[in-house]
Amino acid sequence: LVSVPLTGLERMLSSLLNMALSLPTSKGFTSLTAIISVVAELAGTSLFHGMCPHSVLAYEKASSKFRTRMAEKSRQ
Predict the structure, then answer these.
(1) How many domains does the chain have?
(2) Has residue 1 been placed in a domain?
(3) Which has the closest alpha carbon to 17: 36, 43, 44, 45?
(4) What residues make up the domain containing 30?
């Protein structure tokens, strides 16, 4: 196994995903929901937008709709 140094963005992504996966799950809030939330949050940063604006914006819109549906479902 070869270890390659991580870039700043990779370190940030790794840290955020580890944090998301360690969140408690309740009321339909799963690890997948946490990961989607992290990615959507990253999509709002200018660094991430500069990398791939069109696909990120489309994903951000879809993630927002998904989070809204999950929130409505958990309230029922």
Answers:
(1) 1
(2) no
(3) 36
(4) 6-74
